[in-house]
């Protein structure tokens, strides 16, 4: 349905997005993951026709959207990372304004406003000013605005950042229903791996402007088939201890956690003795050692050297 072909964007000689190729089939829910600065938002802006690529193309049903962005705008709903609402207007007034911008017919708009307010759980609050809403409620109004013209494709750029658990759960359930029950094609970016695992059948991982891996959850997990993931709880950590562990030849990555460290190492490596000796040399106590089943977070760490929230 949507395809990017060697899509690139350069700012001041630096490539923010570097010849990426991604696609979304009709009715799919696809995740786009990457640490800060990976190029996710720039990619979304180009797909949405809000930003012109330096090179490459975006195609909708095989037709380029670069010279004729009106076609993709008809079928695309975008939920931006930043809240884009008029604070001094009510939720209803905001939606009426955006519905007119989308050129929704007057005889249809009123019903669509009520429908989308019902979808995001704010029908009873529609007459209240947006400035009185919580951050989560504002994001739900943002989603409602993107749905007014009944788009076939919904693009969401980190829609749950900094919101309350109730709104987060409501947003996730709304996106799930739109995809599974309405057949809406979804492109979803997030800093929360569990959201992508819950909503998306396929995932693209970006880093430094490039797609570094893609596939289903099973396909991505297979990347770590030759490695082990180990969680080690420590009485404390130190830079010197981390340095010593990283120097071991079979260590791939070491990531600090709230309780110690997470290690990705060569499969079958006899690591425990070396860990104990390294910890003892720094007078640090090793309190727990546990092999873990690899997760998408581990794959992400393996590929980018960073956790998703970094």
From TrEMBL:
UniProt keyword Phosphoprotein present: no
Protein name (record): ABC transporter ATP-binding protein
Family per record: Belongs to the ABC transporter superfamily. Drug exporter-1 (DrugE1) (TC 3.A.1.105) family.
Lineage per the UniProt record: Bacteria, Bacillati, Bacillota, Bacilli, Bacillales
Provenance organism: Oceanobacillus profundus
UniProt keyword terms in alphabetical order: ATP-binding, Nucleotide-binding
InterPro entries per UniProt: AAA+_ATPase (IPR003593), ABC_transporter-like_ATP-bd (IPR003439), ABC_transporter-like_CS (IPR017871), DrrA (IPR005894), P-loop_NTPase (IPR027417)
PANTHER family hit by this protein: LINEARMYCIN RESISTANCE ATP-BINDING PROTEIN LNRL
GO biological process annotation, one example: doxorubicin transport
Domain of life (superkingdom): Bacteria
Locations listed in the record: Cell membrane
């Amino acid at each position: 349905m949507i395809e990017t072909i060697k899509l690139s964007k350069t700012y001041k000689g630096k490539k923010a997005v570097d010849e990426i190729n991604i696609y979304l089939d009709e009715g799919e829910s696809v995740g786009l993951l990457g640490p800060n600065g990976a190029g996710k938002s720039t990619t979304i802006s180009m797909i949405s026709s809000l930003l012109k690529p330096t090179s490459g193309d975006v195609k909708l049903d095989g037709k380029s959207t670069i010279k004729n962005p009106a076609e993709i705008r008809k079928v695309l709903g975008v939920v931006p990372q930043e809240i884009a609402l008029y604070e001094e207007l009510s939720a209803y007034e905001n939606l009426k304004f955006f519905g007119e911008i989308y050129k929704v017919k007057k005889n249809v708009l009123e019903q669509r406003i009520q429908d989308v307010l019902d979808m995001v759980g704010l029908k009873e609050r529609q007459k209240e000013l947006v400035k009185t809403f919580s951050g989560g409620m504002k994001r739900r109004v943002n989603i409602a605005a993107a749905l007014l013209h009944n788009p076939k494709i919904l693009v969401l750029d980190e829609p749950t950042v900094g919101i309350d658990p109730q709104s987060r759960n409501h947003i996730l359930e709304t996106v799930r229903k739109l995809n599974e029950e309405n057949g809406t094609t979804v492109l979803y970016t997030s800093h929360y791996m569990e959201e992508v695992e819950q909503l998306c059948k396929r995932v693209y991982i970006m880093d430094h402007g490039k797609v570094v891996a893609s596939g289903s959850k099973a396909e991505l997990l297979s990347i770590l088939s030759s490695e082990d993931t180990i969680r080690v709880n420590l009485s404390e950590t130190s830079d010197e201890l981390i340095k010593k562990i990283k120097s071991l030849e079979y260590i791939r990555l070491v990531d600090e956690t709230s309780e110690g460290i997470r290690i990705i190492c060569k499969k079958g490596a006899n690591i425990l003795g070396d860990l104990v000796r390294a910890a003892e040399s720094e007078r640090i106590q090793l309190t727990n050692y546990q092999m873990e089943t690899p997760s998408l977070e581990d794959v992400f760490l393996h590929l980018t050297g960073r956790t998703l929230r970094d």
